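WARN retry 2 of 3 for item q-0093 after timeout on previous attempt; input resubmitted unchanged.
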Amino acid sequence: MGKPKVIGVTGGSGSGKTLFVRRLIEQLQEVAVHSMDNYYIKRTDQPKDDKGVENFDTLNSINLQKYIADLKFLVEGQSLQLEEYSYNNPDAKRKTIEVKSADIILVEGIFALYAEELRDLLDLKIFIEAPGYLMLKRRIIRDEERGYDLDDVLYRFEHHVTPSFVNYIEPSRKWADIIIPNHDNFDKGLEVVLAFLNH
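OK item q-0093 returned
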C-alpha cells in the first residue's frame, strides 16, 4: 500500500458531514474512518458553562493532539485501538474498536480543518454547509432519537453549538478545497469527491 489519500470533512453540527462520510464509504472499497467523536474527553472532565452545563463544543472538549498523532499513525500504515464514542451517555459501556489504515482515510469532525498541523496532513479538505435553521432541525431530530430533552438540545444549540460554529468552524471554511451545499442533498458534491478519489 502506498501513501493513503487523506480526506478531511467538516461542517457545523447538523450540516450532514457524518451522512456524507457514510455515503462515501458505501462507494469505496479501501477506506478508514478517523472520527473526531472518538476523541471526546471524559464527561466528568468536560468544560462547563456559567450554568454548570457541560460544553462539548469547545476546543478543550476533544483531545485534538491525540487525534492528530493517531492520524499520523494511520498514514504510516499502523492500526488504532480506540474506545468508541457513546454520545456522552454516562450509562453506555464504551466498546473498543480497531481502525485499520487503508488507501483512503476519511478525517471527520467539527474541528477537522481548524488546526494547521491537521490541515497539513489532508490531501482534500471538504466543508459541508447548510442553513442554520436546517442544522437546528436536524440536530433536534437526531438528539431526540438519542434520548435528549428538547429544552436541553435548544439550550446547547444556542449557547454551545452556535458560538463554536461562529468562532471555530465557519472560519475554517476558508481552508476548504471544496464547499458542498447540503440544503436538500449533496449528490453533486459527492460525485466530485468520488471522481477525485477514483482518479
